[in-house]
Amino acid sequence: MEEGGERHEVAFGNRSIEFRLKRTSRRTLAITVKPDASVVVTAPKGAAVEVVAAKVRKRALWIRRQQEYFSRFLPKLPPRRYVSGETHRYLGRQYRLKVVEGPGENARLRGKFIWVETARKGESGQVRRLVEAWYVLHARERFTRSLGECLARFHGRVCTPQLRLRRMPKRWGSWTQRGVIYLNPELVLAPASCIDYVVTHELCHLVHAPHGQAFYGLLRRVMPDWEERKDRLERAAAETGSEATACGAGEAGLLGN
Ligand SMILES: [Zn+2]
Known about the structure:
four-stranded mixed beta sheet; alpha/beta; flat; disordered C terminus; 2 domains; binds zinc ion; about 260 residues; 6 helices; 11 strands; Zincin-like
């Protein structure tokens, strides 16, 4: 991946775009997004870095779109096999799966391990069921706690919604006008700060339904660093191969995201 060139970055919104700057004898500047989502800028030998950075900033949206396009083809995690030694995430941290033989039929957190005890050690289907049940249980606990903490930021502007878990391939969260918030149990793999972001996003919808100025104004007031959290969530999701977004475009019908 390392191909030389000076490393630089420019701010874009609350994010930054990193790029490698290569000097060539060519007279014009060119920006390329590689399939590994890295950005290479080739520029004339004498071009000032500020001038190059300004060009990159000007094309930032295009760069982001290219990166998003290529990221779809980046390798995802291999499918889970539910055997000892495999790495699983919980609240943004990595844990090793440890499967031991015993009468317990349960899974629990033990140090750096997700410790599974089962009499059917060799059956990956059983291990998987125990691990998934553990995740759902902890997702429910964790989300309930997050909801309580995030609600406090609204100082009574939102009534306590009902919280339900729902598997959604493309969404972290949804809401209904009747005051129900749905959260994707997979969100419990992400850092706690990201869970709070999704919960807060959905709570804002209970005050301002559409993603308009009022919505984002409220989101910024109750969670000034929401964009950093969103970025963190996107990075965490890319690592676990999830395609969910906190806030997809084109919400329609009964459920918004
Ligand atoms: Zn939304």
